[in-house]
Amino acid sequence: MSGSRTENQSGVANSEYEDKLAQAIAQNEELCQEMQKLTWLSEDMPAKIEFLKSAIASQQITLCLQTALAAMLFVLGITVVILSFVNPGLILAGTLKTGQTLGGTLVAASGFIPIFFSRRDKIVALNSLLLGYQHQQVGGLSPDAKLDQYFDQYFAMVQGG
Asked: 62, 75, 160: which is closest to 119 by C-alpha?
């Protein structure tokens, strides 16, 4: 009788051991998957950082060009308005002074508006995303799925998808 009792205790101990072993293996597999993710993220991060740097540079160049063109339009419009008062017949006939003044004002306004309503917010957002990835790379931040989501959204927008 005590022999069967020992076998039962031994069987229970074996099943507990097998359960603990199965749990340890499952946790090990989860850890391996997490390590693979982190390795992939750390390998992918420099490419994302370089992409963001080039996107920021491109956006800054575009913004500078837009601002320069807007400033040229503004100066041209102001010049036309001033000329309509100083010498009304120089550009258009003297009878069209009002039209020249209004046209110059419209051209000046069309140059003035883009200067103040440009898309600087896109550059600020890209800079924030870049800083987040740079902090992750040096270990200052833990990996954040939101950063990846924002990056993926911007990347899809750039790709046209």
From this structure: 62
144 Ramachandran zone, left/alpha/beta (phi>0; psi -120 to 50): beta
In a domain, 110, yes or no: yes
User: Residue 103 pLDDT more than 60?
Assistant: yes
**Could you give the CA distance from residue 3 to residue 44 in angstroms, rounded to a whole number?**
60
8 Å CB contact between 104 and 80:
yes
SS3 144: coil
Whether residue 104 is contained in a domain is answered as yes
| 7 within some domain | no
Using the 8-state DSSP alphabet, how is residue 1 labeled? -
How many C-beta atoms lie closer than 10 Å to residue 67's C-beta?
Answer: 15
Are 56 and 127 within 8 A, CB to CB? Answer: yes
Number of structural domains in the chain: 1
Domain span at residue 121 reads 45-159
Cβ–Cβ < 8 Å for 98, 80: no
Distance between CA atoms of residues 83 and 89, nearest Å: 9
Q: What is the per-residue pLDDT across 46-75, written as a single tens digit (0 to 9) for each? A: 888 898 899 899 888 988 888 888 888 888
